[in-house]
Design brief:
The complex is a heterodimer of chains A (113) and B (112). Chain A has strands at 5-7, 10-13, 19-24, 31-37, 44-50, 53-57, 64-68, 74-78, 87-94, 103-104, 108-112. By secondary structure, chain A is mainly beta. In chain A, the strands form 2 sheets. In chain A, strands 2, 4, 5, 6, 9, 10 and 11 form a 7-stranded mixed sheet that branches. Chain A has a 4-stranded antiparallel sheet with strand order 1-3-8-7, with no helix packed on it. In chain A, a hairpin with a 6-residue loop joins strand 4 (31-37) and strand 5 (44-50). Chain A is globular. The mean pLDDT of chain A is 92. With 112 residues, chain B is mostly beta strands. Chain B has no helices and 11 strands. Chain B has strands at 4-6, 11-14, 19-25, 32-38, 45-51, 54-58, 61-66, 71-76, 85-92, 101-102, 106-111. Chain B is globular. Chain B starts with a strand and ends with a strand. Classes of the chains: A mainly beta (113), B mainly beta (112). At the A-B interface, strand 4, strand 5, strand 9 and strand 10 of A face strand 4, strand 5 and strand 10 of B.
């Protein structure tokens, strides 16, 4: 069974730039969620995708957007990067239906300078 | 007040000790409760997953949920140096298990 994989592992961007992070969900999982984890904090929910549609969003501005593809892989896009966007971005997958636990990837460490 | 409060750390214990990690929460609608372990430079790994009140045991780990007090705990028996990590409590509403609300995490160090 293949777990959740994310790429790249590390990324350095300049304020104002745009970034795309990628995620392949665990085999058999059809729901993907994205989380932001600032240093020393717990992860914060960004949004969830199910059947290629956004299905729930946390308290993040519209410059955070995403996609889910037919093979259940996903992208997180962040426009107009700000210094505070520096964080570990985690992708998690689960089986749809609402009661399945999340399984996380190892994340992408984004640094905005 | 944050929705989920986790005991501040860090916590350092000798090998073999019993460890107790705790979280309190304010939203009585939370129904699903989880503990994740996160090693340095890794993503959170699911340790325990429980529904509503009660205890659940898995090897050296026991998760306890007291919904009346809005309090959850994770006990680690016979702690090992390999248990050294950050432990995160998380919880969710019914039918919304992708939207987890996490505690801040506590860093545990088990000394050989």
């Amino acid at each position: 069974e293949t777990g959740v994989t994310q790429s790249p592992t590390h990324l350095i961007k300049t304020r104002g730039q745009q970034v795309t992070l990628r995620c392949s969900s665990q085999s058999g999982h059809n729901t993907v969620s994205w989380y932001q984890q600032a240093l020393g904090q717990g992860p914060q929910f960004i949004f969830q995708y199910y059947r290629e549609e956004e299905n729930g969003r946390g308290n993040f501005p519209p410059r955070f957007s995403g996609l889910q593809f037919p093979n259940y892989s996903s992208e997180l896009n962040v426009n107009a990067l700000e210094l505070d966007d520096s964080a570990l971005y985690l992708c998690a997958s689960s089986l749809g239906g609402g009661n399945s636990p999340l399984h996380f990837g190892n994340g992408t460490r984004l640094t905005v300078t | 007040q944050k929705e989920v409060e986790q005991d501040p750390g860090p916590l350092s214990v000798p090998e073999g000790a019993i460890v107790s990690l705790n979280c309190t929460y304010s939203n009585s609608a939370f129904q699903y409760f989880m503990w994740y372990r996160q090693y340095s430079r890794k993503g959170p790994e699911l340790l325990m997953y429980t529904y509503s009140s009660g205890n659940k045991e898995d090897g050296r780990f026991t998760a306890q949920v007291d919904k009346s007090s809005k309090y959850i705990s994770l006990f680690i028996r016979d702690s090992q140096p390999s248990d050294s990590a950050t432990y995160l409590c998380a919880m969710s509403l019914p039918g919304a298990n992708s939207k987890l609300t996490f505690g801040k995490g506590i860093t545990l160090s088990v000394r050989p």
